[in-house]
Amino acid sequence: MTPPPIAHPPETLEGWYSLHQIFRFTRQKPDATRLARLVKSSAAALASGPGARKTRTSSAPAGWSCFVRLIGSTSDLMVIHFRESLDAIGAAQNALARTELAKALEPVYAFLSVTEAGLYHITAELARSAEARGGKVGDAEYAKTLASRSTAERESQQVKRRLYPELPEKMPYVCFYPMTKRRDASQNWYTLSLDERSWLMQAHGLTGRRYSGKVQQVITGAIGLDAWEWGVTLFAEDPLEFKKLVTDMRFDEVSAKYAEFGDFYVGRIISR
Question: Can you give the pTM of this predicted structure?
Fold first, then answer.
């Protein structure tokens, strides 16, 4: 009997840590003017805190935060942080907790993760090459080639945008949801071969590319950091694009068979 193929995990590249905080107001919601004032003050505190300042060796920011007024939710506010380290995320969390805005809020949910670019295609290619030469995944030749390919990927502008996303200027609407790959006995993502997962993810990515210019997508990995395995944050000028994109993706085999979704949080950025 031929043994089943080994289900190797894909290699990944990581960038900024991310924290999504969901709150509700403990008292009467402030009016738009007062909320804008509270958010502006809180944003200033976060911008001047550790992790959001410009680095000493670069003019690029080391992260950012934004405030989203939730619409159609039992919660009221979502604050999204991106920072270059876990400690900097903790500093942003503490800085927000000391603001006047935080005194009027109670936490409802939080999601900790890190921006991620999955190297499914490269990992599958290197695994096939290792098998063809009689080696194995993780041996010296595999590791050397992987390091070279990973460096090249990390330097590409496309991957940099995924690992260090910018807050889009003309996309004020935000949608966030966590998700996990299914592990049922008959539909277990993690027992599929690497080639199968690579093909499914490639097809899934082609669907997302059809929304280029309409939706900016940020994928964050949370395995080992949260009960859910990934977070998806979408920005758009027209919130109907969220419905269209998620509908299209659910008809992909990778979602139709293997994806489970958490709650969706949708709203509009309050200030930048």
Answer: 0.89
